[in-house]
Design goal:
Two copies of one chain form a homodimer.
Chain A lengths: L1 H11 L15 E4 L4 E11 L10 H19 L2 E11 L4 H17 L4 E8 L5 E11 L14 E5 L4 H9 L7 H12 L5 H6 L6 E5 L3 H12 L2 E5 L7 H4 L3 H10 L3 E8 L4 H10 L4 E8 L4 E4 L20
Parallel strand pairs in A: 3-4, 8-11
Antiparallel strand pairs in A: 2-5, 3-5, 6-9, 6-10, 7-9, 8-10
Chain lengths: 321, 321
């Protein structure tokens, strides 16, 4: 289909940066600095499951790349480039232009050019696959299995807003324009913490992003590192609009809400100043929220020092109907 | 969903080979030998568009990886690993087991382990995204833009069978069990020409695979290299079952039929012996089918030395309804 190729060319083919072979050959090519490894992550996003059908296409283009850049951030990897697969139920040029604009803007901001792709028609749903590539010096990646007992547990940014925005847009919560305005950006325009991930190399023992929610993702670190942890609820950095909500809803959003592209990481107490300095250099906010323990299990202590009885499970946005 | 994670773990998590960090962290990690570049390609395959809904899942797992390995072959890149995104309308364990078996068998045969992925539910269609990574010494990749005037044009394998099998299965041709049996393997179990691509480094000037069909893909080489070409129809390696067909159908299948994971490449006449030796080393059949010309345009000469008047356009399998 000539029209399809024309559209790909118009919106997705850019001149590849020097040293990279981009869209237009069987493969894209990129160099890797000596002594560095390639870090890669892939996500497949589907309409109705990972995003609402009427989402702003500019935000969708941004987020499709952001969730993958967040995985590079969580490894402490520097972005190199990305490839995009796009299955479109319709060819709508304004939609495509806006999607590409959102995608390329974030790619440019992180030096992560689109170097290959595949566009096709789909019978029903819009599907977006993004694979990112980054580089990290051998042995310096921030893995999930590197945490040690007695580490501080830190998170970047604020928690809870994405979950609340999702439930408002999904109709689970009564319409509330002010609350939606205060939370929607966290859901639709997440900012991957790439600079923070790079700054934490050599400081953090383990890191992960919070795409599945704080308890579930911290649980992945603990399981991989064979540790437990205790969190201090009062220390959690709750998004201001969420802090005013009913306690049960707030806890569900903060502890269980996924789709959060902030980092959770552990570092030894001796590195507190180094963590703070790394965060300042990356212009990120970080908060110390608890400690890892040699004993298995994850507890969240309330302000009276009692463990919360019912911890919310990781929340699966857009469950299959 | 615990069940979903369990299934991923059961069928897609394997112990990563030494030096690679596989499924189970934010990113997979792999090393790249000094002086080599990374080659990468991505494909997004959709039910009803790239494969029939009732296709053997073992064949589907094989083909989803094969089409990507074929892109590495066409660049002369050695496979390193791959990532898989899978959107499933249902979780059917026998289907998943067979798909994984077909995928892993081809991955093992080419030393291309699955090192990362993303599995999700889809509302309607099955979607499969595969991204492969390979390595190629800097400057040695077989690109599309390296052909020179006076090069021989070669193809590997045989042509025409995949197109005929597709049209039989799609009901465009009257049912013919013998013809289907003779052609179906080319459509459903394509063998990527990885060894041939590697053997052609330093010999071929340009290469491409025939996923869009001979005329269209050779056209990509000619456009990128600013050349024309003349092909000799009588020299084309036609699959035996196709050779017996009506002339118009045969030409459509051989010249226009896509979904062919063989290589088309150019090399100078002085390298004919080297090409033959490379093919023998790779246990591949290669056939010389024409020459590149400095003058633009692509002609196919019939057995009387006259150019064919109506060349079939590249054929888009599974066009959008």
């Amino acid at each position: 289909m000539a029209s399809e190729f024309d559209l790909i060319a118009r919106y997705f083919t850019r001149t590849a940066p020097a040293g990279l072979l981009g869209v237009g050959d069987d493969c894209a090519l990129f160099p890797v600095p000596p002594g560095e490894q390639v870090a890669t992550s892939t996500d497949l996003l589907l309409e109705g499951r990972h995003f609402f059908p009427d989402v702003d296409p500019r935000a969708l283009g941004h987020k499709a790349l952001a969730v993958n850049l967040s995985d590079l951030a969580a490894m402490g990897a520097r972005p190199i480039g990305c490839v995009l697969g796009l299955a479109l139920p319709r060819l709508e040029e304004p939609w495509l232009a806006a999607f590409a604009e959102g995608f390329h803007a974030l790619a440019d901001a992180h030096g992560c050019p689109l170097i290959g792709g595949d566009t096709t028609r789909s019978a029903h749903d819009l599907a977006i696959s993004v694979t990112v590539f980054g580089a990290v010096p051998a042995g310096q990646a921030l893995r999930r299995d590197g945490a040690e007992a007695g580490d501080d547990i830190w998170v970047s940014g604020e928690l809870g807003a994405a979950d609340v925005a999702y439930r408002l847009l999904d109709g689970q919560y009564a319409a509330n324009d002010a609350l939606l305005a205060a939370t929607r950006g966290a859901l639709e325009w997440p900012q991957p913490q790439v600079a923070l991930g790079l700054a934490l190399r050599g400081i953090a023992h383990a890191a992960i992003d919070l795409s599945d929610g704080l308890l579930q993702d911290l649980g992945h670190i603990l399981a991989a590192s064979r540790l437990g942890a205790s969190l201090d609820e009062a220390s959690l950095p709750v998004a201001p609009a969420v802090a005013a909500m009913d306690e049960a809803l707030r806890r569900r959003a903060v502890l269980g809400g996924g789709d959060v592209y902030q980092l959770c990481f552990t570092a030894p107490p001796a590195k507190r100043d180094a963590v703070e300095a790394a965060a300042r250099a990356a212009q990120a906010r970080v908060t110390r929220i608890g400690q890892t323990l040699s004993q298995a299990g994850l507890r969240v202590m309330d302000s009276q020092g009692h463990p919360l009885a019912d911890l919310p499970a990781g929340f699966d946005h857009f469950p299959a109907s």
